[in-house]
Phosphotransferase (Brassica carinata), 501 residues
Amino acid sequence: MGKVAVAFAAAAVVAACSVAAVMVRRRVKSRRRWRTVVEILKEFEEGCDTPVGRLRQVVDAMAVEMHAGLASQGGSKLKMLLTYVHDLPNGTEKGTYYALHLGGTYFRILRVHLGGERSYLDVQDVERHPIPSHLMNSTSEVLFNFLAFSLERFTQKEGNESNSQGVKRELAFTFSFPVKHTSISSGVLIKWTKGFEISEMVGKDIAECLQGALNRRGLDIHVAALVNDTVGALSLGYYHDPDTVVAVVFGTGSNACYLERTDAIIKCQGLLTTSGSMVVNMEWGNFWSSHLPRTAYDMDLDAESSNPNDMGFEKMIAGLYLGDIVRRVILRMSQESVIFGPSSSVFSEPYVLRTNSVSAMHEDDTPELQEVARILKDLGVSSDVPLKVRKLVVKICDVVTRRAGRLAAAGIAGILKKVGRDGGGGGGITSGRSRGENQMQKRTVVAVEGGLYMNYTMFREYMEEALVEILGEEVSQYVVVKAMEDGSSIGSALLVASLQS
Ligand code: BGC
Protein backbone atom coordinates (compact mmCIF):
# COMPACT_ATOMS: atom_id res chain seq x y z
CA MET A 1 0.00 0.00 0.00
CA GLY A 2 1.34 3.40 -0.89
CA LYS A 3 1.80 6.13 1.71
CA VAL A 4 -1.18 8.08 0.39
CA ALA A 5 -3.45 5.09 0.64
CA VAL A 6 -2.31 4.41 4.21
CA ALA A 7 -2.95 8.02 5.19
CA PHE A 8 -6.36 7.88 3.53
CA ALA A 9 -7.31 4.67 5.33
CA ALA A 10 -6.12 6.08 8.65
CA ALA A 11 -8.18 9.26 8.15
CA ALA A 12 -11.22 7.16 7.30
CA VAL A 13 -10.77 5.13 10.49
CA VAL A 14 -10.40 8.31 12.57
CA ALA A 15 -13.52 9.81 10.95
CA ALA A 16 -15.52 6.63 11.50
CA CYS A 17 -14.39 6.51 15.11
CA SER A 18 -15.36 10.10 15.80
CA VAL A 19 -18.78 9.63 14.12
CA ALA A 20 -19.30 6.57 16.28
CA ALA A 21 -18.16 8.50 19.35
CA VAL A 22 -20.59 11.33 18.58
CA MET A 23 -23.38 8.83 18.09
CA VAL A 24 -22.59 7.05 21.31
CA ARG A 25 -22.42 10.38 23.16
CA ARG A 26 -25.76 11.40 21.67
CA ARG A 27 -27.30 8.09 22.59
CA VAL A 28 -25.96 8.32 26.14
CA LYS A 29 -27.25 11.89 26.40
CA SER A 30 -30.65 10.98 25.04
CA ARG A 31 -30.85 7.99 27.38
CA ARG A 32 -29.97 10.25 30.29
CA ARG A 33 -32.68 12.73 29.23
CA TRP A 34 -35.19 9.95 28.89
CA ARG A 35 -34.27 8.72 32.36
CA THR A 36 -34.91 12.22 33.74
CA VAL A 37 -38.32 12.27 32.10
CA VAL A 38 -39.18 8.82 33.46
CA GLU A 39 -38.13 9.95 36.94
CA ILE A 40 -40.40 13.01 36.70
CA LEU A 41 -43.25 10.74 35.71
CA LYS A 42 -42.53 8.31 38.52
CA GLU A 43 -42.41 11.06 41.11
CA PHE A 44 -45.66 12.52 39.77
CA GLU A 45 -47.37 9.14 39.78
CA GLU A 46 -46.33 8.54 43.38
CA GLY A 47 -47.58 11.98 44.37
CA CYS A 48 -51.00 11.22 42.87
CA ASP A 49 -51.35 7.81 44.42
CA THR A 50 -54.81 7.01 45.78
CA PRO A 51 -54.81 3.58 47.43
CA VAL A 52 -58.14 2.65 48.93
CA GLY A 53 -56.86 3.35 52.46
CA ARG A 54 -56.18 6.96 51.54
CA LEU A 55 -59.55 7.23 49.79
CA ARG A 56 -61.25 6.05 52.98
CA GLN A 57 -59.47 8.83 54.88
CA VAL A 58 -60.86 11.30 52.35
CA VAL A 59 -64.34 9.75 52.82
CA ASP A 60 -64.13 10.25 56.58
CA ALA A 61 -62.79 13.80 56.21
CA MET A 62 -65.65 14.69 53.84
CA ALA A 63 -68.27 13.37 56.28
CA VAL A 64 -66.65 15.20 59.22
CA GLU A 65 -66.43 18.48 57.28
CA MET A 66 -70.08 18.19 56.22
CA HIS A 67 -71.04 17.84 59.82
CA ALA A 68 -68.92 20.87 60.80
CA GLY A 69 -70.35 22.97 57.96
CA LEU A 70 -73.89 22.17 59.13
CA ALA A 71 -73.06 22.92 62.75
CA SER A 72 -72.04 26.55 62.34
CA GLN A 73 -71.59 29.27 59.76
CA GLY A 74 -67.93 29.17 58.70
CA GLY A 75 -67.41 25.94 60.69
CA SER A 76 -65.82 24.28 57.69
CA LYS A 77 -64.45 25.03 54.25
CA LEU A 78 -67.65 23.30 53.08
CA LYS A 79 -70.27 26.03 53.05
CA MET A 80 -73.23 23.60 53.22
CA LEU A 81 -75.61 26.23 51.83
CA LEU A 82 -79.36 26.21 52.40
CA THR A 83 -81.37 26.12 49.18
CA TYR A 84 -84.92 26.43 50.55
CA VAL A 85 -85.81 23.47 48.34
CA HIS A 86 -87.66 20.99 50.52
CA ASP A 87 -90.10 19.39 48.12
CA LEU A 88 -88.76 17.92 44.94
CA PRO A 89 -90.85 17.38 41.78
CA ASN A 90 -92.82 14.15 41.96
CA GLY A 91 -94.30 13.70 38.51
CA THR A 92 -97.70 15.33 39.02
CA GLU A 93 -96.56 18.72 37.66
CA LYS A 94 -98.34 20.25 34.68
CA GLY A 95 -97.70 23.12 32.30
CA THR A 96 -94.91 24.76 30.34
CA TYR A 97 -91.80 26.06 32.06
CA TYR A 98 -88.46 27.53 31.03
CA ALA A 99 -84.89 27.25 32.25
CA LEU A 100 -81.89 29.45 31.62
CA HIS A 101 -78.63 27.86 32.76
CA LEU A 102 -75.41 29.80 33.19
CA GLY A 103 -72.75 27.12 33.59
CA GLY A 104 -68.97 27.36 33.48
CA THR A 105 -68.46 26.97 29.73
CA TYR A 106 -71.95 26.93 28.18
CA PHE A 107 -75.26 28.58 28.69
CA ARG A 108 -78.47 26.77 27.83
CA ILE A 109 -82.06 27.73 27.38
CA LEU A 110 -84.87 25.23 27.16
CA ARG A 111 -88.57 24.74 27.56
CA VAL A 112 -90.28 21.73 29.11
CA HIS A 113 -93.87 20.71 28.81
CA LEU A 114 -95.36 18.56 31.55
CA GLY A 115 -98.55 16.58 31.32
CA GLY A 116 -99.14 15.67 34.96
CA GLU A 117 -97.64 12.20 34.74
CA ARG A 118 -94.03 11.15 35.11
CA SER A 119 -93.95 9.72 31.62
CA TYR A 120 -95.17 12.99 30.12
CA LEU A 121 -92.05 15.12 30.17
CA ASP A 122 -91.41 16.80 26.87
CA VAL A 123 -88.14 18.72 26.61
CA GLN A 124 -88.40 21.19 23.75
CA ASP A 125 -85.99 23.50 21.95
CA VAL A 126 -82.78 23.04 23.86
CA GLU A 127 -80.35 25.81 22.90
CA ARG A 128 -76.74 25.43 23.99
CA HIS A 129 -74.06 28.03 23.29
CA PRO A 130 -70.52 28.64 24.55
CA ILE A 131 -70.38 31.59 26.95
CA PRO A 132 -68.53 34.37 25.08
CA SER A 133 -65.26 34.69 27.00
CA HIS A 134 -65.42 38.50 27.26
CA LEU A 135 -68.56 38.13 29.41
CA MET A 136 -66.63 36.33 32.13
CA ASN A 137 -64.89 39.50 33.20
CA SER A 138 -67.27 42.17 31.95
CA THR A 139 -69.86 43.89 34.17
CA SER A 140 -73.11 42.58 35.64
CA GLU A 141 -75.02 44.84 33.27
CA VAL A 142 -73.31 43.41 30.20
CA LEU A 143 -73.75 39.83 31.43
CA PHE A 144 -77.44 40.13 32.31
CA ASN A 145 -78.31 42.15 29.20
CA PHE A 146 -76.74 39.38 27.17
CA LEU A 147 -78.77 36.70 29.00
CA ALA A 148 -81.99 38.71 28.63
CA PHE A 149 -81.29 39.23 24.93
CA SER A 150 -80.71 35.48 24.46
CA LEU A 151 -83.99 34.69 26.21
CA GLU A 152 -85.81 37.23 24.07
CA ARG A 153 -84.50 35.58 20.91
CA PHE A 154 -85.53 32.17 22.25
CA THR A 155 -89.09 33.23 23.03
CA GLN A 156 -89.41 35.09 19.74
CA LYS A 157 -88.52 31.89 17.90
CA GLU A 158 -91.22 29.87 19.61
CA GLY A 159 -93.93 32.19 18.27
CA ASN A 160 -97.31 32.00 19.88
CA GLU A 161 -97.94 28.24 20.01
CA SER A 162 -96.27 27.65 23.35
CA ASN A 163 -97.65 30.71 24.99
CA SER A 164 -101.00 31.07 23.26
CA GLN A 165 -102.82 32.56 26.25
CA GLY A 166 -100.17 35.24 26.57
CA VAL A 167 -99.54 34.27 30.21
CA LYS A 168 -96.33 35.18 31.98
CA ARG A 169 -93.57 32.67 31.37
CA GLU A 170 -92.22 31.02 34.52
CA LEU A 171 -88.44 30.66 34.43
CA ALA A 172 -85.85 28.80 36.48
CA PHE A 173 -82.44 30.46 36.57
CA THR A 174 -79.85 27.71 36.97
CA PHE A 175 -76.81 29.54 38.22
CA SER A 176 -73.73 27.34 38.69
CA PHE A 177 -71.93 29.43 41.32
CA PRO A 178 -72.13 29.68 45.12
CA VAL A 179 -75.14 31.65 46.31
CA LYS A 180 -76.38 32.46 49.80
CA HIS A 181 -80.12 32.04 49.45
CA THR A 182 -82.74 34.02 51.31
CA SER A 183 -85.56 32.09 49.63
CA ILE A 184 -85.89 29.67 46.74
CA SER A 185 -86.08 32.60 44.33
CA SER A 186 -83.49 34.96 45.76
CA GLY A 187 -79.91 34.90 46.92
CA VAL A 188 -76.63 36.76 46.71
CA LEU A 189 -73.47 35.68 44.97
CA ILE A 190 -70.84 34.63 47.51
CA LYS A 191 -67.90 34.47 45.10
CA TRP A 192 -67.07 33.58 41.54
CA THR A 193 -65.42 30.30 40.55
CA LYS A 194 -64.25 28.69 37.28
CA GLY A 195 -62.43 31.78 36.02
CA PHE A 196 -65.36 34.25 36.17
CA GLU A 197 -64.31 37.62 37.59
CA ILE A 198 -67.01 40.29 37.77
CA SER A 199 -66.21 41.56 41.23
CA GLU A 200 -69.02 44.12 41.53
CA MET A 201 -71.53 41.28 41.34
CA VAL A 202 -70.39 39.61 44.55
CA GLY A 203 -73.04 40.34 47.20
CA LYS A 204 -75.75 41.17 44.63
CA ASP A 205 -79.04 39.32 44.36
CA ILE A 206 -78.66 37.24 41.23
CA ALA A 207 -82.36 36.63 40.55
CA GLU A 208 -83.06 40.35 40.94
CA CYS A 209 -80.30 41.20 38.43
CA LEU A 210 -81.81 38.85 35.84
CA GLN A 211 -85.39 40.00 36.54
CA GLY A 212 -84.27 43.61 36.13
CA ALA A 213 -82.66 42.90 32.77
CA LEU A 214 -85.77 41.01 31.57
CA ASN A 215 -88.04 43.88 32.68
CA ARG A 216 -85.83 46.43 30.91
CA ARG A 217 -86.35 44.49 27.68
CA GLY A 218 -90.09 44.36 28.33
CA LEU A 219 -90.19 40.57 28.52
CA ASP A 220 -93.09 38.96 30.31
CA ILE A 221 -90.91 36.42 32.10
CA HIS A 222 -90.86 35.76 35.84
CA VAL A 223 -87.71 34.42 37.53
CA ALA A 224 -89.48 31.93 39.79
CA ALA A 225 -86.45 30.08 41.17
CA LEU A 226 -82.71 30.51 41.49
CA VAL A 227 -81.18 27.04 41.37
CA ASN A 228 -77.68 25.64 41.67
CA ASP A 229 -76.93 23.18 38.85
CA THR A 230 -76.51 20.30 41.33
CA VAL A 231 -79.99 21.02 42.72
CA GLY A 232 -81.40 20.94 39.17
CA ALA A 233 -79.80 17.54 38.61
CA LEU A 234 -81.20 16.27 41.92
CA SER A 235 -84.68 17.47 40.95
CA LEU A 236 -84.62 15.60 37.65
CA GLY A 237 -83.19 12.52 39.36
CA TYR A 238 -85.92 12.60 42.00
CA TYR A 239 -88.66 13.21 39.42
CA HIS A 240 -87.71 9.96 37.71
CA ASP A 241 -86.77 8.01 40.83
CA PRO A 242 -87.62 9.05 44.42
CA ASP A 243 -84.65 7.08 45.77
CA THR A 244 -82.42 9.90 44.47
CA VAL A 245 -80.89 11.68 47.46
CA VAL A 246 -77.56 12.97 46.13
CA ALA A 247 -76.59 14.84 42.95
CA VAL A 248 -73.10 15.62 41.73
CA VAL A 249 -71.83 17.74 38.85
CA PHE A 250 -68.53 16.98 37.15
CA GLY A 251 -68.18 19.62 34.47
CA THR A 252 -66.01 22.69 34.14
CA GLY A 253 -66.41 22.89 37.93
CA SER A 254 -67.59 20.34 40.45
CA ASN A 255 -70.08 20.29 43.28
CA ALA A 256 -72.63 18.14 45.10
CA CYS A 257 -75.94 18.56 46.89
CA TYR A 258 -78.08 16.15 48.87
CA LEU A 259 -81.26 15.89 50.91
CA GLU A 260 -80.60 16.56 54.59
CA ARG A 261 -82.90 16.30 57.60
CA THR A 262 -83.68 19.83 58.83
CA ASP A 263 -82.89 18.86 62.42
CA ALA A 264 -79.34 18.03 61.31
CA ILE A 265 -78.86 21.57 59.99
CA ILE A 266 -77.85 22.83 63.41
CA LYS A 267 -76.67 26.26 62.24
CA CYS A 268 -80.33 27.07 61.39
CA GLN A 269 -82.20 25.90 64.42
CA GLY A 270 -85.96 25.96 64.20
CA LEU A 271 -85.91 25.59 60.42
CA LEU A 272 -89.28 24.07 59.58
CA THR A 273 -90.19 22.49 56.29
CA THR A 274 -93.23 20.47 55.29
CA SER A 275 -91.08 17.48 54.35
CA GLY A 276 -88.72 17.69 57.35
CA SER A 277 -85.77 17.92 55.00
CA MET A 278 -84.00 20.40 52.78
CA VAL A 279 -81.58 20.18 49.88
CA VAL A 280 -78.14 21.38 50.97
CA ASN A 281 -75.72 22.74 48.37
CA MET A 282 -72.36 21.59 49.71
CA GLU A 283 -70.09 23.60 47.43
CA TRP A 284 -67.71 20.68 47.74
CA GLY A 285 -65.24 22.25 45.33
CA ASN A 286 -63.85 24.05 48.35
CA PHE A 287 -63.39 20.85 50.39
CA TRP A 288 -59.91 20.39 51.77
CA SER A 289 -58.14 17.66 53.70
CA SER A 290 -54.50 16.86 54.35
CA HIS A 291 -55.27 13.37 53.00
CA LEU A 292 -55.74 14.71 49.47
CA PRO A 293 -52.71 13.76 47.36
CA ARG A 294 -51.39 17.17 46.33
CA THR A 295 -48.36 17.64 44.10
CA ALA A 296 -46.14 20.63 43.31
CA TYR A 297 -48.08 20.99 40.01
CA ASP A 298 -51.35 21.40 41.94
CA MET A 299 -49.78 24.01 44.17
CA ASP A 300 -48.48 26.01 41.20
CA LEU A 301 -51.83 25.76 39.44
CA ASP A 302 -53.56 27.07 42.54
CA ALA A 303 -51.08 29.90 43.12
CA GLU A 304 -51.40 31.11 39.53
CA SER A 305 -55.21 30.79 39.34
CA SER A 306 -57.71 33.64 39.64
CA ASN A 307 -58.78 32.26 43.06
CA PRO A 308 -55.69 31.08 44.97
CA ASN A 309 -56.21 29.11 48.21
CA ASP A 310 -59.75 28.45 47.15
CA MET A 311 -61.63 25.49 45.61
CA GLY A 312 -58.78 23.05 46.28
CA PHE A 313 -60.87 19.91 45.66
CA GLU A 314 -62.38 21.34 42.47
CA LYS A 315 -58.87 22.04 41.16
CA MET A 316 -58.04 18.32 41.44
CA ILE A 317 -61.22 16.87 39.95
CA ALA A 318 -62.93 19.31 37.60
CA GLY A 319 -62.78 19.75 33.84
CA LEU A 320 -61.38 23.27 33.87
CA TYR A 321 -58.22 22.08 35.60
CA LEU A 322 -57.33 18.52 34.53
CA GLY A 323 -55.88 19.67 31.21
CA ASP A 324 -53.78 22.27 32.94
CA ILE A 325 -52.29 19.77 35.39
CA VAL A 326 -51.29 17.58 32.43
CA ARG A 327 -49.81 20.64 30.69
CA ARG A 328 -47.72 21.51 33.74
CA VAL A 329 -46.21 18.03 33.91
CA ILE A 330 -45.40 18.07 30.18
CA LEU A 331 -43.90 21.54 30.55
CA ARG A 332 -41.61 20.42 33.35
CA MET A 333 -40.51 17.42 31.28
CA SER A 334 -39.83 19.55 28.24
CA GLN A 335 -37.79 21.96 30.36
CA GLU A 336 -35.63 19.14 31.67
CA SER A 337 -35.27 17.45 28.32
CA VAL A 338 -35.97 18.23 24.65
CA ILE A 339 -38.43 15.41 24.15
CA PHE A 340 -40.94 17.69 22.40
CA GLY A 341 -38.40 19.36 20.18
CA PRO A 342 -37.69 23.09 19.97
CA SER A 343 -41.36 24.19 19.98
CA SER A 344 -42.07 22.82 23.45
CA SER A 345 -42.62 26.41 24.67
CA VAL A 346 -46.24 26.01 23.52
CA PHE A 347 -46.77 24.33 26.89
CA SER A 348 -45.86 27.55 28.72
CA GLU A 349 -49.24 29.01 27.93
CA PRO A 350 -51.74 28.42 30.77
CA TYR A 351 -54.84 26.40 29.88
CA VAL A 352 -53.62 25.80 26.30
CA LEU A 353 -54.31 22.09 26.82
CA ARG A 354 -58.02 21.57 27.39
CA THR A 355 -59.51 18.61 29.18
CA ASN A 356 -61.39 17.48 26.07
CA SER A 357 -58.00 17.08 24.35
CA VAL A 358 -56.75 15.14 27.39
CA SER A 359 -59.72 12.82 27.09
CA ALA A 360 -59.21 12.40 23.31
CA MET A 361 -55.51 11.55 23.83
CA HIS A 362 -56.19 9.26 26.77
CA GLU A 363 -58.80 7.32 24.82
CA ASP A 364 -56.82 7.18 21.57
CA ASP A 365 -57.02 3.55 20.54
CA THR A 366 -55.18 3.82 17.21
CA PRO A 367 -52.10 1.58 17.11
CA GLU A 368 -49.65 4.45 16.57
CA LEU A 369 -51.50 6.96 18.76
CA GLN A 370 -52.25 9.15 15.73
CA GLU A 371 -54.82 11.19 17.66
CA VAL A 372 -52.18 12.10 20.24
CA ALA A 373 -49.84 13.13 17.40
CA ARG A 374 -52.58 15.22 15.79
CA ILE A 375 -53.48 17.04 19.00
CA LEU A 376 -49.83 17.80 19.81
CA LYS A 377 -49.35 19.09 16.27
CA ASP A 378 -52.48 21.27 16.54
CA LEU A 379 -51.10 22.71 19.76
CA GLY A 380 -48.01 23.79 17.83
CA VAL A 381 -45.48 21.06 18.61
CA SER A 382 -43.69 21.14 15.26
CA SER A 383 -41.39 18.12 15.42
CA ASP A 384 -42.69 14.61 14.93
CA VAL A 385 -43.17 13.33 18.43
CA PRO A 386 -41.88 9.74 18.67
CA LEU A 387 -44.25 6.98 19.71
CA LYS A 388 -42.64 6.49 23.10
CA VAL A 389 -43.18 10.18 23.93
CA ARG A 390 -46.80 9.93 22.78
CA LYS A 391 -47.20 6.98 25.14
CA LEU A 392 -45.74 9.07 27.90
CA VAL A 393 -48.33 11.80 27.28
CA VAL A 394 -51.11 9.21 27.48
CA LYS A 395 -49.68 8.00 30.78
CA ILE A 396 -49.71 11.53 32.23
CA CYS A 397 -53.36 11.92 31.18
CA ASP A 398 -54.09 8.60 32.87
CA VAL A 399 -52.44 9.55 36.17
CA VAL A 400 -54.31 12.88 36.37
CA THR A 401 -57.69 11.42 35.41
CA ARG A 402 -57.38 8.34 37.59
CA ARG A 403 -56.68 10.50 40.63
CA ALA A 404 -59.62 12.77 39.74
CA GLY A 405 -62.06 9.88 39.27
CA ARG A 406 -61.00 8.16 42.48
CA LEU A 407 -61.18 11.33 44.57
CA ALA A 408 -64.60 12.06 43.08
CA ALA A 409 -65.73 8.61 44.24
CA ALA A 410 -64.38 9.29 47.74
CA GLY A 411 -66.39 12.53 47.81
CA ILE A 412 -69.59 10.67 46.92
CA ALA A 413 -68.88 7.97 49.48
CA GLY A 414 -68.35 10.72 52.08
CA ILE A 415 -71.89 12.00 51.46
CA LEU A 416 -73.27 8.46 51.63
CA LYS A 417 -71.50 8.05 54.94
CA LYS A 418 -72.96 11.29 56.28
CA VAL A 419 -76.50 10.22 55.39
CA GLY A 420 -76.00 6.66 56.59
CA ARG A 421 -76.12 4.98 53.18
CA ASP A 422 -72.58 3.63 53.11
CA GLY A 423 -73.41 0.38 54.84
CA GLY A 424 -71.58 1.47 57.96
CA GLY A 425 -74.41 1.06 60.47
CA GLY A 426 -77.22 3.11 59.08
CA GLY A 427 -77.34 6.42 60.87
CA GLY A 428 -74.58 8.51 59.36
CA ILE A 429 -71.89 10.13 61.43
CA THR A 430 -74.23 12.02 63.72
CA SER A 431 -76.45 9.14 64.70
CA GLY A 432 -74.26 7.65 67.39
CA ARG A 433 -74.80 4.18 65.98
CA SER A 434 -71.71 2.10 65.67
CA ARG A 435 -70.47 0.37 62.55
CA GLY A 436 -71.82 -3.09 62.00
CA GLU A 437 -75.19 -2.54 63.67
CA ASN A 438 -77.82 -4.31 61.68
CA GLN A 439 -79.63 -1.86 59.46
CA MET A 440 -81.34 -2.56 56.16
CA GLN A 441 -79.33 -0.97 53.39
CA LYS A 442 -81.61 1.32 51.37
CA ARG A 443 -81.42 1.69 47.62
CA THR A 444 -79.75 5.04 46.94
CA VAL A 445 -79.55 6.85 43.64
CA VAL A 446 -76.81 9.38 42.92
CA ALA A 447 -77.69 11.64 39.98
CA VAL A 448 -74.64 12.75 38.03
CA GLU A 449 -74.34 15.44 35.40
CA GLY A 450 -71.65 17.49 33.64
CA GLY A 451 -69.50 17.24 30.55
CA LEU A 452 -66.53 15.63 32.25
CA TYR A 453 -68.64 12.71 33.44
CA MET A 454 -70.76 12.44 30.29
CA ASN A 455 -67.95 12.68 27.74
CA TYR A 456 -64.86 11.24 29.40
CA THR A 457 -65.33 7.48 29.68
CA MET A 458 -62.09 6.83 31.56
CA PHE A 459 -62.96 9.40 34.24
CA ARG A 460 -66.37 7.76 34.63
CA GLU A 461 -64.88 4.28 34.82
CA TYR A 462 -62.25 5.23 37.38
CA MET A 463 -64.90 6.89 39.51
CA GLU A 464 -67.33 3.99 39.40
CA GLU A 465 -64.61 1.42 40.00
CA ALA A 466 -63.32 3.31 43.06
CA LEU A 467 -66.83 3.67 44.47
CA VAL A 468 -67.20 -0.12 44.48
CA GLU A 469 -63.71 -0.45 45.99
CA ILE A 470 -64.59 1.94 48.83
CA LEU A 471 -68.11 0.69 49.57
CA GLY A 472 -67.47 -2.98 48.92
CA GLU A 473 -69.33 -5.21 46.43
CA GLU A 474 -72.33 -5.78 48.67
CA VAL A 475 -73.19 -2.21 49.64
CA SER A 476 -72.43 -0.85 46.18
CA GLN A 477 -75.23 -3.02 44.77
CA TYR A 478 -77.62 -0.64 46.51
CA VAL A 479 -75.95 2.48 45.17
CA VAL A 480 -77.04 3.42 41.67
CA VAL A 481 -75.17 6.15 39.80
CA LYS A 482 -77.44 7.64 37.14
CA ALA A 483 -76.39 10.03 34.39
CA MET A 484 -78.71 13.02 33.94
CA GLU A 485 -78.13 14.59 30.56
CA ASP A 486 -79.08 18.29 30.77
CA GLY A 487 -80.39 17.44 34.23
CA SER A 488 -79.35 20.77 35.71
CA SER A 489 -81.53 22.78 33.36
CA ILE A 490 -84.44 20.35 32.94
CA GLY A 491 -84.56 19.65 36.67
CA SER A 492 -84.62 23.36 37.51
CA ALA A 493 -87.63 23.84 35.23
CA LEU A 494 -89.33 20.90 36.98
CA LEU A 495 -88.62 22.54 40.30
CA VAL A 496 -90.39 25.71 39.19
CA ALA A 497 -93.29 23.54 38.04
CA SER A 498 -93.48 21.88 41.45
CA LEU A 499 -93.67 25.30 43.11
CA GLN A 500 -96.80 26.12 41.11
CA SER A 501 -98.66 22.90 41.82
C1 BGC B 1 -69.50 26.18 41.68
C2 BGC B 1 -70.74 25.39 42.04
C3 BGC B 1 -71.20 24.59 40.85
C4 BGC B 1 -70.06 23.75 40.30
C5 BGC B 1 -70.46 22.92 39.09
C6 BGC B 1 -68.45 25.27 41.06
O1 BGC B 1 -67.36 26.01 40.62
O2 BGC B 1 -68.97 26.81 42.82
O3 BGC B 1 -71.77 26.23 42.48
O4 BGC B 1 -72.28 23.79 41.24
O5 BGC B 1 -68.98 24.57 39.95
O6 BGC B 1 -70.89 23.69 38.05
Notes: The mean pLDDT is 91. The longest helix spans residues 3-47.
